[in-house]
Amino acid sequence: MTDNMQTSAIMTAGMRALRETLGLIEAEIFITNIKQDRFDYTEWRHGNLFEDMNLEELVSNAAEFEQQYPNSVPRNAKVI
Length: 80
Description:
With 80 residues, this protein is mainly alpha-helical.
């Protein structure tokens, strides 16, 4: 798979996930807001993503996610 094909597949999967989770209108609003704010996901993740979770909650959420979406977790990534 070429880089362009891989990027296209990732973008398609991401848009599908946004639409299924948020709905079409909210997905568009989300994308617009990220583009307008020059959103830095890495910076946001460090400060916000897990700030209200302790380690046990994080591990529990990861295990629950893996059970609900087994094909979304890379084969070499396993929750202990």
